[in-house]
Amino acid sequence: MKRRQALTLLAAGALAPAAPCVFARGVPAEVERAIPGARLLGDGRLRWFGMHIYDARLWVAPGHPSGTDYAGHPLALELEYARALDGARIAERSIEEMRRAGALPDAQAGGWLTAMKQCFPDVKPGDRITGLQRPGEPTRFFVNGELACELADPEFARRFFGIWLGPDSSQPALRSALLGGAR
Q1: 101 burial via Cβ count (<10 Å: 0-12, 13-18, 19+)
Q2: What is the pLDDT of residue 69?
Q3: Is the pLDDT of residue 39 over 70?
Q4: Number of domains in the chain
Q5: Cα(85)–Cα(81) distance, integer angstroms
Q6: Is the pLDDT of residue 9 over 60?
Q7: pTM for the model
Q8: Is residue 34 part of a domain?
């Protein structure tokens, strides 16, 4: 398999079990500013054929209800990459994963893809992309703590965060780890 094809499979983490993250971190500044008092609900490590791809952490507001209802609550999903990945492929893979949750009109997918390609740079080991959801506000993406872009579509937020948190996630073990063990 060519390297580019392999990276396609890696980008959004479609084929690996999750493991707890090895390195705990404090609340990122961008998360603390947007969700004062944020706490870590869960974390996990994405591996693909044994290769460490990224560590994921789900930050939630104080009083966040336990369970799997993520769409109506403030949260931040932080991905810290362990490998270099192409930003455009991260965006493309994200659309592929969003389609797992149901039909997605081509025009809508195309608009989201264009926006995500502008949001997501090529990443190298240690880079962080953090997606922030606050109901009634645009989804915000931060790259290494700096605001990269905003997307003002509630359906985008539901589908994007559903890649990791939705019941149709291709990574059920990672989903469970992020949701603090909730099924």
Answers
A1: middle
A2: 72
A3: yes
A4: 1
A5: 8
A6: no
A7: 0.85
A8: yes
